[in-house]
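Whiteboard transcription, Tuesday session. T.W. wrote the C-alpha cells on the left side:
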C-alpha cells in the first residue's frame, strides 16, 4: 500500500488543521491506520490510530480531546482533525498502515509539516 499525506501548514496557537492520508495500491492489506509525529530533536511518537473495519480508535494522552482520527473507506482516506493546537504540536506528521496480524506499521507516508506559532 502507498500512502500520501497532506494538509500540513502554519497555524497560530489555538487554531485547527486537518490532515489527510490517501491510501492506494493493495489497500486490502491494510488493517489499521495511524498518525505519528516527530518533533525537532525528539523521537517519533504515536498520535492516533483507527481500524478500517470497525473504526476502533486510540489516542495518545497528549492529544485526547483535541485531535480526532476518522476514515472514509470509500475514498481509502484517513483524516486527523487537530483542534486547539499549541506549539508543542509542531512536528512532521506521518501516516502509517498496519497489516492484519502484525504489530508494526510497515507502510509509511512521506510526512507533512505542521507548525504552530505562539
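and on the right, the sequence the group agreed on:
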Amino acid at each position: 500500500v502507498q500512502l500520501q499525506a497532506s494538509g500540513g501548514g502554519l497555524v497560530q496557537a489555538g487554531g485547527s488543521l486537518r490532515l489527510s492520508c490517501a491510501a492506494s495500491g493493495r489497500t486490502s492489506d491494510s488493517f489499521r491506520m495511524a498518525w505519528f509525529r516527530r518533533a525537532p530533536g525528539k523521537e517519533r511518537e504515536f498520535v492516533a490510530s483507527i481500524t478500517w473495519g470497525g473504526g476502533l480508535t486510540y489516542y495518545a494522552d497528549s492529544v485526547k480531546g483535541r485531535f480526532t482520527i476518522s476514515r472514509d473507506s470509500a475514498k481509502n482516506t484517513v483524516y486527523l482533525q487537530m483542534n486547539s493546537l499549541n506549539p508543542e504540536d509542531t512536528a512532521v506528521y506521518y501516516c502509517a498502515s498496519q497489516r492484519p496480524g502484525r504489530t508494526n506499521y510497515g507502510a509509511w507516508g512521506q510526512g507533512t509539516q505542521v507548525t504552530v506559532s505562539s
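Someone added at the bottom: The radius of gyration is 13 Å.
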